[in-house]
Amino acid sequence: MRYPSSESAGNRLNTLELLEALIGRASVTPDDAGCQALVQGLLEPLGYVCEPMPHGPAQARVSNLWAVHRGATPGPLLVLAGHTDVVPPGPRERWTSDPFVPTHRDGRLYGRGAADMKASVAAMVVAAADFVRQHPRHAGALAVLLTSDEEGAAVDGTVRVVEALHARGLRPDACIVGEPTSVQALGDTIKNGRRGSLSARVVVRGLQGHVAYPHLARNPVHDLAPALAELAALQWDDGNAHFPPTTWQVSNLHAGTGALNVIPGEAVLDCNFRYGTASTPDTLRSRMLAILHRHGLDVDVQWTLGAEPFLTQPGRLSTALAQAIEAETGRRPQMSTTGGTSDGRFLARVCAEVLEFGPINASIHQVDEHVALDDLPRLTAIFHRTVRTMLT
Asked: Which of 186, 203, 291, 312 could form a disulfide with 300 if both were Cys (CB 3.0 to 4.6 A apart)?
């Protein structure tokens, strides 16, 4: 495979060529597989100051890259953020072609990470390179932030870079995260926020015994069942203008020894809330515990707050991005806060305007993940237009 250089395509980076090179690197989380070094080699000759910021244990080191180009006049700090890691491909035999060999079929580029989110990374890098080449004395500063653990634990990636920037007194003014947000067509959806995620592991204690003598035992599954039905049926809130109603889902339920004649001594329930600003973690915890206790359960509950909700109100960045999308696609994007968590939750701690935008998300995390070839130059142009509006 031929990897791109800063002289590609007549002294311009080519998004497709860069995307193919990124897909060809099997960067299964948290392994970056050299993707960020490739990007650094493309941006440094253009005047970007690149700072690798690795974190985490040696056996699972997370690669992070902070690359910034400072202009000649005052202005905002705009960040283009993304992740180079991908989820595992799953069984290779189920793929039509090798997931780490970029393959063209029917106007699409196939490969793990094609949509989530190496297409956006490639488009952002090309847009960032072209912009400073055309506007070397731009206003403010343009930064590219990449991590390799967004698809994993997300504890040594963007959150660590945000902490380091905060310690230096750096607060980005605006940030675009290149998550695949489009639903039916490129540009139909921008994420201007995300729901929070609150998980719980509930251990329900019973008394193990023989199934033939239930009066000498206490079955924790039977005890849990009425509470489980109530939790599943409950309307936790009504949502609001920006977020849908809170949802509660069981993800795992375990009990038993494996034998057919033993009443289990405990049952373990894993569950998750996805919530907006109509509820808080404290209110959700207290309501769930009240239900468990009302049903007389002997429980131990461990909570994990995976993410808090964030919301970006309309502002300069949303206007610039929406106008760029309409100029390149003819579509007026809808604002949405649906979907899972993203690194936007960390950036929102230090940045007032955080938006997510990228290609169609229908194939992400699936076998034969792909991106439309025709969308790549338009995605790049959207990022370029937005940067130009913000920094010139």
From this structure: 203
Cα 248 versus chain centre, distance: 20
pLDDT in tens, 83-108: 999 999 999 999 999 999 999 999 99
Please name the amino acid found at residue 309: P
For residue range 219-250, list pLDDT tens digits in order. 999 999 999 999 999 999 999 999 999 999 99
Please report the beta strands in the chain, taking only residues with DSSP state E, as ranges in sequence order: 49-52, 64-70, 73-83, 103-105, 108-110, 139-147, 174-177, 189-191, 193-194, 196-205, 209-210, 247-255, 262-263, 266-275, 299-307, 310-311, 334-336, 353-356, 370-372
Instruction: Give the burial class of 282: count Cβ atoms within 10 A of its Cβ; 0-12 exposed, 13-18 middle, 19 or more buried.
Output: exposed
Helix/strand/coil for 318: helix
Which residues participate in catalysis according to the annotation?
85, 150
Q: What is the mean pLDDT of the chain?
A: 95
What's the pTM?
0.90
- Please give the Cα distance from 110 to 94 (Å, whole number): 13
Strands in 247-255's sheet, in edge-to-edge order, are 247-255, 266-275, 196-205, 299-307
Number of residues that make up the chain: 392
